[in-house]
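Hi F.,

I've been meaning to write this up properly since the lab meeting, where we talked about keeping a consistent format for the predictions we share between groups. The idea is simple: the sequence comes first, exactly as it goes in, then the structure tokens exactly as they come out, then a line or two of notes. No screenshots and no reformatting. I'm using this chain as the first example so we have something concrete to point to.
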Amino acid sequence: MELLQRLCASHGIPGHEEAVRAVIREEMGNYTDEITTDALGNIVCFRAGKGPGPRRKVMLSGHLDEIGFIVNCVEKEGWVRFLPVGGWDIRNLNAQRVLIHTRSGDTIGGVVGSKPIHLLTASEKNRKLDFPDLFIDTGLSKEKAVEMIREGDWVTMDREFVALGDCYVSKAFDDRVGAYVVFEAMKRVGEHAVDLYSVGTVQEEVGLRGALVSAFGIQPDLAVAVDITPACDTPGSSRHERNTALGEGVAIKLMDSSLICSPKLVDFFIDLAEKHGINHQLEILRRGGTDAGAMQRVHAGCPAITISIPTRYGHSPVEMVHKNDVQAAVELVSRFITTAHEGDFMPR
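Output, unedited:
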């Protein structure tokens, strides 16, 4: 899992995915025919299929960006004010360690400041926080903070990748674990009969922007996004609300709020999983979207699906995935690459 750890240790909010791209470029050099980066920042690893043409073009997508923040004010006293980039639950932010990435290339540590609970008034305890209430304390003198940090610098969580029982916990599993599956599957397969485009997309967390751009360039015949999905298996979740559960296998999505997955692709993936004994579960996500929702709508459209890794505590600094689910996802996507030329995926 060394590649997954390296991806999660890298930092990159939407529009600032350079460090994550560098990991992909270094890792995939020996496994592709060509690596390119488009104007928006999507990194495309291409490997031609073997056999006569015309060959199907298959696009696999895992987005590289993580949710984070942008500095919108550095007060004269040195306090750093910030705004979210992507969907944050503000309840997760008090007293967290963060990293400020500056224009000069410096990385400055800080903590999200909070008032001690025994000093809070009754009204403060009951009031819902908003981002104007939060600030970052860097520990620097006010002169040094004003000198080194400016509006537009970006901020990520300061958290490590750790093993916890049968699981992994880290920041940025959304969607570094999906990117890991996409590129690890490409590494593992041998010859295949489709032209394969494994893409690390950008700016997914702010509107599926990278997937839309890269799919317009590739014009795929089939599109597969790999992303996380909520594992609603913790206390307080009823059975009918459960989207997926940790440890019960890779999730084959049926629909979310961005797409209805191609029924023929859904059946094809289910058949693959059953044939090869790959632990799997089906997923319907009521709210939230993935790159597949953008890829299916380019040009004349193409059949698309999302393969998901069940994840607890999504969009937080301590996202959790199960080791077996990750490996099941790699195996399922690998099997698809080697058989994608066989199926009939067009609607009747």
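Notes:
The chain has a mean pLDDT of 95.
Residues 261 and 305 are 5 Å apart (CA to CA).

If this format works for you, I'll send the rest the same way.

G.
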